[in-house]
Specification:
single chain; 256 residues; alpha/beta; Rossmann fold; five-stranded mixed β-barrel; binds hypoxanthine
């Protein structure tokens, strides 16, 4: 992978991956350096609407921040190893802390669509791992940093933002779940369901990067409401809720 020097030497310790509908978050930040994914050899490029597919070097709260605007998904046909190439790139650029965001369906009756859930743990039901191929028996306790979670908890409280915490379950997709799959996910302890994040979190953990994850709860899981699920609705709710995450990040980043 040939990584532009502006990224390699960006000086950021923290990076953020923006999921469905959250891309516009980056538009409000200073654009110090921008590079489309397809300009970087060896990096897969997203074809999903709402996932722009570019790196942005910016600044937030006086600190350099590396933003991955859009991600590729396993369901697009990329392997779990390919899906985490941008994490490899961030590691090469010296990133020590990674914030992952996504859009997810809510499975918890107390977590309303339009709110955010901080990920406390995950269940990987994709059947794949980016660490396949080696005896990579890494510990997966506390993948989602208790230290960073505490900082965000305090920020949410200070700002009056309703930030839930719960377990994220990843399905392979690309179809949304059946109501029976949603009932299974609830039964085995999940609060939110999506199709990303777990491979990135696993690879970051492997590389020694401190991870936090945030799900924008865009809809009720299938069967929990009478509404039919549509990707456009998911991205629209994501855009509306993005403002809350900006507020949280502005407050929390200087402490991270
Ligand atoms: N299921 C899976 N992925 C999702 C959902 C969902 O309900 N909403 C947003 N991403």
């Amino acid at each position: 992978m040939k990584i532009p020097s502006e990224i390699l030497d960006c000086g950021a310790e923290t990076a953020i991956v923006l999921g469905s509908g959250l891309g516009p978050f980056a538009d409000s930040l200073p654009q110090k350096f921008v590079c489309e994914y397809d300009k970087i050899e060896g990096l897969p490029k997203s074809g999903v609407p709402g996932h722009a597919g570019r790196f942005l070097v910016t600044e937030l709260g006086g600190k350099s921040l590396l933003v991955a605007q859009g991600r590729v998904h396993h369901y697009e046909g990329w392997s779990a190893e390919e899906v985490v190439r941008h994490v490899d790139l961030m590691h090469a650029a010296g990133i020590k802390k990674l914030l992952l965001t996504n859009a997810a369906g809510t499975l918890n009756r107390a977590f309303e669509p339009g709110t955010w859930m901080m990920i406390s743990d995950h269940i990987n039901l994709t059947g794949h791992s980016p660490l396949r191929g080696g005896p990579n028996f890494i510990d997966m306790t506390n993948v989602y940093s208790p230290r960073i979670r505490e900082i965000f908890r305090r920020s949410a409280k200070a700002l009056g933002v309703n930030l839930h915490e719960g377990v994220y379950i990843a399905m392979q997709g690309p179809q949304f779940e059946t109501p029976a799959e949603i009932r299974m996910a609830q039964t085995i302890g999940a609060d939110a369901v999506g199709m990303s994040t777990v491979h990135e979190a696993t690879k970051a953990r492997f590389l020694g990067i401190e991870v936090a994850g945030f799900s924008c709860l865009t809809n009720w899981g299938a069967g929990l409401s009478s509404a039919e699920l549509a990707h456009e609705d998911v991205t629209a709710v994501g855009r509306q809720a993005a403002g809350q995450m900006v507020e949280l990040l502005l407050h929390a980043l200087p402490e991270i």
